[in-house]
């Protein structure tokens, strides 16, 4: 594991804000301002368990190998720390949500490894710190792969109960107290409706818990869709619906249907009731809040998977690291012992990786950025 960085302000920025502390260990994203751009703030895994499977206690998680935010997981594993950079894209959207809130649907796009996933995770973290309720899916493939699936004749679609319970569990883990205070019409089937009150209402938390406890395939999915509708109807506390790797909801799923002897048809994500319901950029936004989707641009989820752009959606480009961001990235990696930094290596690494932090982590040995063996001996 990398050495612990100093947080006394001894490290200084090499970018536009030279002279300030590089690592803002005593701050959180809610208190970060434009003066803190390019510096690092803490994002503890336990505050965002959806992004880190080892911190989530969702049922049957082993059946959902696609869960988690790979960008955050890889960054934390490489650096041995729990900090991320306060980038301009994060600040821009955060301030827009604070000051304007006129854009109800955001679609984040950009080149592979440009930081879209970490930006979404940071915004969810900010929303929760700021008192919002945030339903967060760090990888939409968790809705289209893994677990069991069953045909729902009434809906003429397919239900994925493990994926639904994953969402319900994580939402309750983050917001149980708030959801307990919010009421909703209870729309679950009669077999799950022991929680109904005289007027047919219940708390959103009770609705989610009923879906978690249900044994059939349909009830958990129905619970998620009803919970989302109930969240969107709230006008007091802002609500964020955030789905990363959003274009997985338009790609072929990992599920199939037998259509004859030795024949199997791959199900499209749109045939899955839960996946279709989480196409948040197609549906109405919360009365008070926002929907965010971030596109994946590698693997089978790529530009070959078209995502319809509705007129109410604001497409926003997430660019790879700028020279200022790159300078501070290397300063941070130097501080935590991941790779040594000097002016020549900074320029060379930026040109070779085109501002892609993932490539820097993967290829740092080939680029001669590994610290000397003496540095490792000093840590023993």
From TrEMBL:
Keyword Iron appears in the UniProt entry: no
Pfam families cross-referenced by the UniProt entry: DAP3
Annotated protein name in UniProt: Small ribosomal subunit protein mS29
InterPro entries tied to this protein: Ribosomal_mS29 (IPR019368)
Native organism taxonomy: Eukaryota, Viridiplantae, Chlorophyta, core chlorophytes, Trebouxiophyceae
Localization per Swiss-Prot or TrEMBL: Mitochondrion
Keywords: Mitochondrion, Ribonucleoprotein, Ribosomal protein, Transit peptide
GO cellular component terms, A-Z: mitochondrial small ribosomal subunit
An MF annotation (GO) of this entry: structural constituent of ribosome
